[in-house]
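Narrative of activities, Objective 1.

The group set out to show that a structural description can be obtained from nothing but a protein's sequence at a throughput compatible with the screening campaign. Below is one input-output pair from the validation batch, recorded exactly as produced.
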Amino acid sequence: MNTAAPQPSAPASALPAAVKLLGSLLLLVLLLVGWARWQGVIVQRPDAQTLWQRELLFRDGPAGEVVAIDAGTGAQIASFEGEQGFLRSTLRALVRERKRAGIGPQAPLTLIARGDGRLTLLDPSTGQRIDLEAFGPTNAAVFARLLQTGTTTSSL
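Output recorded for this entry:
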């Protein structure tokens, strides 16, 4: 004969209630994020102090290379030969916005080095900006070289 007292079991409805509560919380968070995006709320950390900046013009060279020119002095500071996918796609994105706004290639772009190590490529004529560190250190290094003085040539 078994004289042990029966073990109390957890109510069968406890687990579904917890799942419902968690699901409701997740739905609430999704609705709040959607509402914030719809309202145009943008969460962006403030930019760090500008340590260095350079006004640049980019032109296509005679052999298909991309030539970077210091807008202040008119001196060629770099030549990018070969495919240079990241450089070309970044510039293409900014040129596309300029074309939409009816702005030509004569206005320079601004390359900004910030105190926290971030690099920003800014088009003052359209207000477009590309935070280069978002694409990884290798891609950001392509533009970081342009902050240095002197003439350089890069090939793929």
